[in-house]
Write a structure and sequence with these properties.
Structural class: alpha/beta
CATH topology: Rossmann fold
Radius of gyration: 22 Å
CATH class: Alpha Beta
Strand content: 5-15%
Helix content: 25-40%
Number of helices: 16
Shape: globular
Length: about 450
């Protein structure tokens, strides 16, 4: 059976554009594009067929179905050739039952989707496998593309560099100087990307990369490009599959450029459209208060888009003041009766530290989502018996600097409620035993 996908304008302008065409916005109105699938062809096979087929693929190790993205390839890029798929076995990340943390927050059924358990340590891999694979196929057909570029706050650049290196395609990354962690900086450097650290913020990097890619010889990999959304939507589908094809009540995700929440909605919408689920989880977009344009837009009822110069935040990957995927994210919130909430630096830092005390090792962006969860539970918006999934977007090991600052109590505007420091003691068993005893008595 033949399946197809194409680019189309999100505002309904006529026209279909090939996934292998260099195009980022609608040529008629300038709005964003989205990838659309032939749902009629997909629906010719029953929901039970699709559930069984994907379950079988996931259980096996047959390439490329061993990937959490490509196990659903008919729903991603159905006409991509096998030999052009660039995969690092991305996806299949753990859906962790956060029982102890849930008890502390008053949520009996709390789960954390550990998307940071991926090749480069973030959910960005799920979208980059699709984009780089499509570019690889494009380049085989005399396309003018010579390299792939992105603006990044860290994770996107790491993912692009790794997948481009695996494909043998040059990568160029634009980073705001001194605004990402050393762990995030070294990843694209190690993978051989051309790294350009600019004296600006992410929005300034985004402006420059869009100009640099105008002649189509360098392909733009930012989330204005809908190909990445196709891969990232697999997170939503994977969550539902991990719950035996039943959706949760809520999914909370940290948001910056708004591609991730767009992707979640897209995956859920597809499942609903082909009859696998009959209801949609409510989506929550969680923002740092220092970089909260989407929250401010939500506060005004989405009457107009709010843009701003984002202030510094521990959650550096979502320090974005002019989100590209705004229109798509508004749709995601409205169609799921969703919520947008913010968290202060104090709230997010302590939410992350509390989660760490229950066995997690959160990145600061996951901490934003956990802080927002805490607020929504206290407000009564989220009930204690509802099934809640928090999206953990990256591996906490990328952000050891902020954790060190938290536990040394040196973060401005943050009172570290769960600070824990190493004890420097002499090599004396009696002194050591006394220190252990004091600590154990204090923790009772």
């Amino acid at each position: 059976m033949e399946y197809s996908a194409y680019f189309a304008c999100i505002n309904g302008c006529s026209g279909k554009h090939s996934l292998y065409q260099i195009i980022y916005v609608c040529p008629k109105c300038g709005s964003l594009l989205e990838v659309r699938h032939d749902l009629e062809s997909i629906s010719k096979k029953s929901p039970e067929y699709w559930k069984s087929e994907i379950d079988i693929r996931v259980a096996g190790m047959k390439w490329p179905y061993s990937s959490g993205v490509w196990c659903m390839r008919e729903w991603i890029a159905p006409d991509l050739h096998d030999d052009n798929i660039v995969s690092m076995h991305e996806g299949h990340s753990n859906l962790f039952f956060a029982e102890r943390l849930g008890e502390k927050l008053g949520v009996k059924n709390l789960w954390v989707k550990l998307c940071g358990n991926s090749h480069t340590g973030s959910f960005k891999d799920l979208g980059m496998t699709v984009l780089v694979s499509v570019v690889k196929q494009m380049m085989q057909h005399n396309n003018p593309v010579r390299a792939i570029a992105c603006a990044s706050t860290g994770d996107t650049s790491a993912s692009l560099a790794a997948y481009a290196a695996a494909a043998g395609i040059p990568a160029i990354v634009f980073l705001p100087r001194d605004k990402i962690t050393s762990a995030q900086l070294i990843q694209p450097i190690a993978n051989g990307a051309q790294v350009l650290a600019l004296d600006t913020d992410f929005d300034g990097c985004m402006e420059i990369v869009r100009k640099v890619t105008e002649d189509n010889s360098i392909y733009l990999a930012n989330s204005i490009n809908s190909l990445r959304v196709e891969g990232q939507k697999s997170v939503a589908i994977e969550i539902v599959r991990q719950f035996k094809w039943e959706p949760p009540d809520w999914i909370i995700v940290p948001v910056g450029n708004l591609g991730n929440i767009t992707a979640l909605y897209k995956g859920l919408h597809l499942l609903n459209a082909i009859g696998i689920i009959s209801r949609m989880p409510r989506l929550v977009g969680a923002q740092a208060a220092n970089a909260n344009p989407f929250y401010m837009s939500y506060q005004n009822g989405f009457i107009e888009k709010v843009s701003m110069t984002a202030k510094s935040t521990i959650a550096s990957a979502i320090q974005i003041g002019d989100p590209v995927s705004y229109e798509k994210a508004v749709k995601a919130i409205k169609k799921t009766d969703g919520i947008v909430e913010e968290a202060s630096e104090h709230e997010l830092a302590n939410a992350g530290a509390l989660a760490d005390l229950t066995g997690l090792y959160t990145c600061p962006h996951t901490a934003v989502a956990l802080a927002v969860l805490t607020k929504l539970v206290r407000k009564g918006s989220i009930k204690s018996d509802q099934k809640v999934v928090v999206i953990s977007t990256a591996n906490g090991l990328k952000f050891t600097g902020s954790k060190k600052s938290y536990h040394s109590e040196t973060i401005e505007h943050v009172k570290s409620l769960h600070a824990n420091t190493a004890m420097n003691l002499p090599a004396d068993a009696t002194v050591v035993s006394d220190a252990i005893e004091r600590k154990l008595n204090h923790s009772r």
